[in-house]
Write a structure and sequence with these properties.
With 126 residues, the chain is mainly alpha-helical. 62% of the residues lie in helices and 6% in strands. The protein has 5 helices and 2 strands; from the N terminus they run αααββαα.
Length: 126
């Protein structure tokens, strides 16, 4: 598992770790039951504090994406991808609700809003 830390990023290191592991889960590079590197091993590999890695792993566990078995390590849960999919769906819905509200505020019709969505979808196919 390759994690790259960008020291010039505004994002804290633990958030960079979380984000990259989430991407690995959603892309299928990490599957249910796959182990994460040990906290100490990843800390050593990245040249960072083990506490930083632990903070990232704890956050992933709180989100239900991993489970930690004492003495064995942290593993991707079976629900990880489903949880991330639901989160992404909610984010898309929120953005679309804001777009509809903005269109309504500008007195746009449902048909005009749908035309814009169709146009965007067609442009994405190209």
């Amino acid at each position: 598992m390759t994690i790259i830390i960008n020291n010039s990023s505004q994002a804290p290191i633990y958030e960079q770790i979380i984000k990259q592991i989430k991407v690995m889960i959603t892309s299928g590079r990490l599957k249910s039951g796959d182990p994460l590197p040990s906290v100490r091993g990843l800390a050593r590999e990245l040249g960072i504090s083990a506490l930083t890695v632990k903070k990232a792993y704890d956050a992933l566990e709180q989100e239900g994406l991993t489970v930690t078995v004492h003495g064995k390590g942290s593993f991707v849960t079976g629900d990880g991808l489903n949880l991330l999919g639901e989160q992404a769906m909610r984010e898309v819905e929120t953005v679309m609700e804001r777009a509809v509200a903005m269109g309504r505020a500008l007195s746009m019709t449902d048909e005009q809003l749908m035309d814009i969505l169709r146009l965007i979808l067609e442009e994405e196919k190209c």
